[in-house]
Amino acid sequence: MARVPAAERRNDLVNAAIHVIASHGVEGATTRRIAEEANAPLATLHYCFHTKELLFEAVIERLTEQYREVLIENDVHGDVAATARGVLRGLLNWYLEGDPDLASATIELVSWAQRQKDHPAVSVYSEAFNVMRSILARAASGQEVAPETIDQIGYVVGALSDGFAVNWLTYADRSQAAEQAETIVGVLDAWLAANLA
Amino acid sequence: MARVPAAERRNDLVNAAIHVIASHGVEGATTRRIAEEANAPLATLHYCFHTKELLFEAVIERLTEQYREVLIENDVHGDVAATARGVLRGLLNWYLEGDPDLASATIELVSWAQRQKDHPAVSVYSEAFNVMRSILARAASGQEVAPETIDQIGYVVGALSDGFAVNWLTYADRSQAAEQAETIVGVLDAWLAANLA
Amino acid sequence: MARVPAAERRNDLVNAAIHVIASHGVEGATTRRIAEEANAPLATLHYCFHTKELLFEAVIERLTEQYREVLIENDVHGDVAATARGVLRGLLNWYLEGDPDLASATIELVSWAQRQKDHPAVSVYSEAFNVMRSILARAASGQEVAPETIDQIGYVVGALSDGFAVNWLTYADRSQAAEQAETIVGVLDAWLAANLA
Amino acid sequence: MARVPAAERRNDLVNAAIHVIASHGVEGATTRRIAEEANAPLATLHYCFHTKELLFEAVIERLTEQYREVLIENDVHGDVAATARGVLRGLLNWYLEGDPDLASATIELVSWAQRQKDHPAVSVYSEAFNVMRSILARAASGQEVAPETIDQIGYVVGALSDGFAVNWLTYADRSQAAEQAETIVGVLDAWLAANLA
DNA sequence: AATGAATGAGGCTTCATTCAT
DNA sequence: TATGAATGAAGCCTCATTCAT
């Protein structure tokens, strides 16, 4: 079996882990399956990560980063309402049109991570929330918006996208989900309109 | 160990499974742990359910039923808006104040079930949705509300409660979650106000 | 593979462990090898002992018991000198003519045990020493022998038999060892004669 | 990591191996641990020794040499009895006051070596015995001592020191062992007195 | 009907070793 | 020469399940 540099292998393994977690769940994501998916010998997995748990943490880091990129890419640089709307749209599209593995692995890993000793799960959420807050704060700089309101908007955007994701990953019906995404955006709009008036 | 009738044992085992799934995840819910939690011999688990998968399906049935009861108990028999609001409140309270095991086991099992051959996961959602629809439909009987609107309301209530749950189970901060529940209800209110006018 | 009752299996496994430790050392005594030697599935080993360490402790218990039996069987019920002599002879014969696996496994395990958390190794020695002391003490009941002397005799008998064993297990030359056994007994005799006068 | 000449590395590795074997046993003496203890890259171990077995043989050579030095340093150049006594004392002190790693590694390795194909273990003993014999023979040159007697004395000195060592390494109680050393020397004295008269 | 006993398959990890530079 | 990187084989253990009573 051809030797492959470690950096590349680490990358392959993280990708493989994401794929396997997405399709078999955290539960079915065994080291063997992940190594096989990455076309790597089993021992290589442990050479690169030492522990399955460490691999999963690397996966979480990757997901966190992806999530952050989605947020940043969808910053429309408008006012608060438009910005919140853009970010929510971006998230829904990420779930719908991006790599579905990333989305389902995220959902899968959140509860796994929540049971780990040092709760890396919280970091995904907190990191995501921080990025969202800074985006919204910048959008609000010209307006008179209380900091608590910013946080609240961030929470609502997050909750709406999570709620959307759970349903979408359960039914896996794309056209239905596309309609639901519109509904979800409408919900945010109505709430923003009522609260930022 | 005292011999216990199978019917009772089935019940004990389902309860134990819920508890174990909630605290260890689907991943950590081994037959041994479940049997031990139920104070039952390991073989009894297989005597009662033959397969771990069958036990999990029984758990899902139980959760579905619980979910339905929550919906029904929180039917305020008012107009559509009040009813949707009541149902959402009921769900949020179920997560917040009811047996937290039930709530987290539900979230845990949804993605597990989604990966099973015959998708029992969908049944939880569909069943829940059907109940919600019938409740909302009855509430709407005196008003002029399109059937699609009813479905949409059901979807939004579900998504909001799911979004709430994911965050709550991740952070497990009760007082924060209580505030967030208010926000969530506010979101529904704004949307209903804008859409049922 | 035929099912075999657990008690018998535990016994088989302990015997197999002794044999494997004797021939491959603690180092080479893998669970697989032991299970194979016992004609048992690997899982059975863990069903019967849960842990390799627990199996080894059972082996140590067995060895301790054997050692004690050797001592007791060789109690000639004479005076102190004759008794000490008889016990030493018994030990040397045990090494030479008994099951050589028992003897070498004993030597092998002593240093292993010494590195374990709760030092079961010491127990082998202490137990053996206690038995020896009580045998010698009874033999000395009619004579005027200080308790410290009894302990000292016990120590010397032990040290002589250990010294003999190390050499015997190293060279594995039976006829040479038989002569050496005579020498060792002679050493004890000389020392007893000089010290019990 | 600084590149270090192979000769020095060989030395470091042998020292590290002795230390690791002493504290973790042959069983726990993995190449990684040894390399780490020697502050050497893992591959260097195999570059210097090709095989773990070859490293262990080098360790045995070193131990043999040390043992020989102890014997020679403790040659009092007196008559046979005094010389035997001096050598025994030297060995007991080596165990008690010298580097305890050396002593325990010796005991550890003897049974390991005994299981190897070409029995390097025997070489330690034989070499040690030869040295002892030549020392005793020189001491006996003025006296009338049969060659078999010389061999016997060598054997007894060896057996007594081994017997002492096993107990000392098991209990690791220095003050107790110091007393026992006196006893052991007394045993030799009594035997020599009775046999060289 | 109910369960203690037993097991094949597979879990994660670590070993001594070799490759490639 | 000397070593970071990589790996096949084997380590211990636990899983869901089945057997025998």
Give a description of the structure.
Four copies of one chain form a homotetramer. By secondary structure, chain A is mostly helical. The first copy, chain A, has two domains: 50 residues, Arc Repressor Mutant, subunit A (Orthogonal Bundle); 136 residues. Helices cover 82% and strands 0% of the residues of chain A. The mean pLDDT of chain A is 90. Chains in contact: A-B, C-D. The interface between A and B is large, with 44 and 43 residues.
The fraction of residues assigned to DSSP E strands of chain A is under 5%
Largest sheet of chain A: none
Count of extended strands of chain A: 0
Mean pLDDT of chain A: 90
Per DSSP, the total helix count of chain A is 9
Seen as an oligomer or otherwise, the chain set is homotetramer
Query: What structural class do you assign from the helix and strand content of chain A?
Result: mainly alpha
Radius of gyration of chain A: 19 Å
Taken together, the total number of domains of chain A comes to: 2
Give, in order, the helices and strands of chain A.
HHHHHHHHH
Any low-confidence stretches of chain A, pLDDT <50, length ≥5? none
Rounded to the nearest angstrom, the distance between the terminal CA atoms of chain A is 64 Å
In percent, how helical is the residue content of chain A? over 70%
Overall outline of chain A: elongated
* Biggest interface pair, counts: A-B, 44 and 43 residues
InterPro entries (chains A, B, C, D): Homeodomain-like_sf, HTH-type_TetR-like_transc_reg, HTH_TetR
Keywords (chains A, B, C, D): DNA-binding, Transcription, Transcription regulation
Organism (chains A, B, C, D): Streptomyces boluensis
GO molecular function, one term (chains A, B, C, D): transcription cis-regulatory region binding
